[in-house]
């Protein structure tokens, strides 16, 4: 599923952040190289998103 979505949207795994509350879904995303976060609370999600986006020098182009 994750690989099909990456292909459909023209993205590399390193460009994608995924969050879910189910460990098996997080593990599935990570297995294809996507940065994933298991949702437990809003504060930890915000911190994970900030960490993911901190290294980006410029925003990604819109693939549309």
Describe the protein's topology:
Layout lengths: L1 H8 L7 E4 L2 H9 L3 E4 L3 H13 L10
Parallel strand pairs: 1-2
Organism: Pseudolysinimonas kribbensis
Protein name: HAD family phosphatase
Give an overview of the whole structure.
Strand 1 (17-20), helix 2 (23-31) and strand 2 form a beta-alpha-beta unit. By secondary structure, the chain is an alpha+beta fold. The chain is flat and about 30 Å long. It is 47% helix and 12% strand. It has three helices and two strands, in the order H-E-H-E-H.
Mean pLDDT: 91
Proportion of strand residues:
5-15%
Strand order of the main beta sheet, please? Answer: 1-2
Alpha plus pi helix count: 3
Distance between the termini: 21 Å
- The helix/strand series, from N terminus to C terminus, equals HEHEH
Radius of gyration: 12 Å
